Amino acid sequence: MYIAGEWCFADGGETFATIDPNTGREIARIPRGRATDVDRAVSAADAVARDWQFTDAIARAALLRRLSELVSANAEELAALEAVDSGHYLSKARDLVSAIPLWLEYWVGMADKVNGRTITVPGEKMSLTVLEPLGVTAHIVPWNYPLLVMVRSIAPALALGNTCVVKPAEDTSLSALKFAELVEQADFPSGVFNVVTGLGPEAGAALASHPKVRGITFTGSTETGRTVAKLGSEHIAQLNLELGGKSPLIVLPDARLDDAVEGAIQGFCSHAGQVCIAGSRLLLHEDIADEFLNRLEARLKDTRVGDGFDEATQMGPVVSLKQYNRIMDYIEIGKQESVLRIGGGRPRDVGSDGYYIEPTVFDKVSPEARIATEEIFGPVAAVIRWNKIDDLISLVNSSEYGLFSVIWTEGITNALNIARRIDAGGVIINDWFGELPMTPHGGTKQSGLGREEGFEAVTSYTQVKHIGINLESRLTTNWAEAPL
Ligand code: NAD
């Protein structure tokens, strides 16, 4: 682990295994940090919080720029670690890692441009606001995009003057540890960035409940998010919760069907469906539903599921045996609840090792079915047919989640009308680009609160201080006559 600029083991010397999902074999042992380790990391981050806050923003940006260059220089190793740990196939892991500098550089540019405002007030007075960092921020990260999800929150946090303690997911700690090596090489002051590895209910809970943690960014399931929110509320930490989803992909009769099919596959098969914004509910207009499904089936026949290190692979394994069993259970539930149209099990040509699942589509799914309402987090889509726009909107908004949505149509008026009525943090029209460093990302309802990315993320990593100044040479109001 990386605490206070030092590499260390967990206090008690305990470790746990990390597994390659391509083979099911143990590839490394990771320190099992607990509350004492978390306390060392938070105390180290707290000890330097003031110095880091008052380090010139341009100097903070220069360190982030060096870090970004080091990420580029070490991209191949970082990509291999993501592939072997979280199951991204290698070429996808390379694409992901090559995008990480965009996230870092967005905040390199932003570090010296985040300002408060001046406010007009009555009388000979002046008011202004300054945006200040929160102090120590905790970053609890899931396993699906370990590096990206960590960087999208620590980049603004560091740029805006916060110190960081990261708790990677237990299944995927390797890239965070490699990243900490690069932070060290970039010469960040000791204690500004720390990584404590460990299990969620131990290291994660200790971090969320540490009283010196002023801000918590939690990305993960809604269930754990609720626990983290309770722990953080005990010491009134600022919360940023990026939680689960059950996002709709809507196809209107006038959509470019081949593009919509391509977008749908990307939406529920990308990273084997283990994406928070996965388009796992296919809401197809009745008139095009059969044709859409015929084309989807034909296109999915070409999808190569297999070893992430095979150059031909387009969909790797799911992250763990636990996740594999969970998804297979949902597929069995789907078979009872609706009509299995495509896939439905383990691909035939992958052997017996590794956690591989076929792209799976269920048709004629009832909107209340479990596979239509619960987040499966695997390559499984539920088709629901609709006919009237009002029914479509009710279907979309009946979900307890509100993370993301996609609309396929050539009619911009229809698209914008539907977009306005959808209760979700994001709507994309005729594409499936979920995340960019410059656009805000986050959810409504059970999908979370707060925003990552884009200028909106400033509010997640700063607090507002109001400074008021009396400009008169002497006080002219009698205290007893003052309004407050
Ligand atoms: P998870 O909730 O199981 O774990 C997330 C993190 O929380 C891990 O680091 C884990 O160790 C930690 N954790 C677990 N129990 C904890 C506790 N009691 N206290 C503190 N920390 C604890 O989620 P996961 O299975 O790793 O990730 C999948 C989920 O993440 C899905 O629901 C997905 O939609 C969501 N996700 C959301 C976004 C987003 O931006 N909204 C992005 C990626 C993933």
UniProtKB/TrEMBL annotation:
**Active-site residues from the entry:** E242
Q: Which UniProt keywords apply?
A: Oxidoreductase
Among Gene3D superfamilies, the record links this protein to:
Aldehyde Dehydrogenase, Chain A, domain 1, Aldehyde Dehydrogenase, Chain A, domain 2
Residue ranges of the Aldehyde dehydrogenase domain? 11-467
Which SUPFAM superfamilies does its entry note? Answer: ALDH-like
Alphabetized Pfam families for the sequence: Aldedh
Q: Which domain of life is it from?
A: Bacteria
- Kindly indicate whether the keyword Oxidoreductase belongs to this entry: yes
* Recorded family membership: Belongs to the aldehyde dehydrogenase family.
* Protein's name according to its UniProt entry: Aldehyde dehydrogenase family protein
Record the organism: Mycolicibacterium gadium (Mycobacterium gadium)
